[in-house]
Amino acid sequence: MSEQKLMKLVEQRLSAKRAHHVICVWEQALKMAARFGEDPKKTGTAALLHDITKEVPLDEQLKMLQKFGIINDNVILKSPSLYHAITGALYAERELGITDADILAAVRYHTTARAGMSRLEQIIYLADAVSADRTYKQVEKFRRLAMEDLDLCMLEMLKHSIRYLVKDECLLPADTLQAYNQYCEMDHQKGR
Ligand SMILES: [Fe+2]
Ligand SMILES: [Fe+2]
């Protein structure tokens, strides 16, 4: 699918505010792709699609998850904010006919992360967190790190979001913990 068509789809399916966010993520992701040698076409597609089902009503998304038998994870089931990552990947695959597993995984894991992420998955996860429309306190630090060291930025971002989830007594998805453990071990091995 051409970038132009994807942009149109973003405009059709999302509010102006969220479409703006998606464009900011797209710009950030392309900068990171150029920096780390990732394919710009794949990166652009994943970035433009990452929130494509975010405004589909939650009950509809839940139906989609049940239809495809994905909802066997109690934590995901109880975390509606995570639905759109899974339904987004489903939409990309079933409705748009995208077959590239790396693009689908980048959409699928952009909210939780997971162990063994590809470079593209890391770029989309981090671009979503440090895009120009984000304004949280430490965003500048993360934005810098996102252009320097993907693994270290993943570790710092996971620490940041896990802290935040625990503070709010949110459930922690297993994928997030497994990602954290992996980047933590990697960091220990590097002896930082
Ligand atoms: Fe999202
Ligand atoms: Fe997003």
TrEMBL record:
InterPro entries documented for this protein: Diverse_Catalytic_Enzymes, HD/PDEase_dom, HD_domain, YqeK
Name of one Pfam family that matches: HD
EC number: 3.6.1.41
Catalysed reaction equations from the record: P(1),P(4)-bis(5'-adenosyl) tetraphosphate + H2O = 2 ADP + 2 H(+)
Gene3D superfamilies: Hypothetical protein af1432 (1.10.3210.10)
UniProt keyword list: Hydrolase, Iron, Metal-binding, Nucleotide-binding
Gene Ontology molecular function terms on file: bis(5'-nucleosyl)-tetraphosphatase (symmetrical) activity; metal ion binding; nucleotide binding
Domain annotation HD/PDEase: ranges: 14-142
PANTHER family assigned: BIS(5'-NUCLEOSYL)-TETRAPHOSPHATASE, SYMMETRICAL, SLR1885 PROTEIN
Name the UniProt record assigns to this protein: bis(5'-nucleosyl)-tetraphosphatase (symmetrical)
